Amino acid sequence: MTELDPTRRTFMTNVAGVAATAGGIAAALSSSTAEAAEDKKKLGGVHAIPELAPQWKSLDLAEILKRPAAFLSISAVKSLYEPWGAQASERQWERGSLEAAVKVAKEARKHDNFKTFAWIGYEVFRQNYPQSDFDRAQYATWTKGIEDWPLEKQAKDNEIATPLAELIKPGDLEFSELALQTAFVGTQLPLDLARKRVQVIVLTGIHLDWCIEGNARAARDNGYLPIVIGDACGCQKPEQEAAAMERINNFFAPVISADTFVKLLNA
Q1: How distant, in Å, are the alpha carbons of 51, 52, 198, 209, 256 from that of 56?
Q2: In a 10 Å sphere around its CB, with 0-12 CB exposed, 13-18 middle and 19+ buried, how is residue 227 labelled?
Q3: Of 8, 13, 146, 235, whose CA is between 20 and 30 Å from 182?
Q4: Contact by Cβ (8 Å): 254, 225
Q5: Is pTM beyond 0.90 here?
Q6: What is the pLDDT of residues 127-171, one digit of tens each?
């Protein structure tokens, strides 16, 4: 084999070194970008909304959102959105979900295909609810240390958060969930949806990995088309939201942003 002359050998060695260095830089940048994206997801809200799962990409969501629809606000109560609320430690009022839910509700009001608006509470004080052994044990943990709240304050805790309450109109549904994680059991919701021939259910509220996911699953099992507005929802902690949205998006319902919802309705 003919040996390369020293000049050429040096040149090729340098080229290889540059290529290796460039590859290392590119890998480092890629890793840094991925880490930054993961860090941003931990902020929750709009940052945690995943790319639509492949099955949803095959759908015309703009057309679907023009079918007979219902807007559901779930558990968006003063308990979570007031500093004195029983669940105030989550500080949901600082995290943007309420503003996103207001945007979605206002936009839905502009479109006649939205037949039902339901404002659904979630009572933390459940001493008067029928309770199984599991219920009794679980509900007791929700009010530990505040069992002596007066009934008036307990009732106020379950009122719809003020910015949303201001959007309620005569004829809207107002009730509390009676089951652990769904508005489809023991309430007037199923009958209302059936009478109005609703097909699509738009979900906002708290908690994303509990009542929102539970209602999305129940909606699917009852033949409806649920759509979750990711940044109009929330988990107990922001860093839990990405995993919850990914699970819902992968299996039960498309997860989109409030801004995307507005664009699709006006497409």
Answers
A1: 10, 6, 20, 20, 11
A2: buried
A3: 146
A4: no
A5: no
A6: 999 999 999 999 999 999 999 999 999 999 999 999 999 999 999
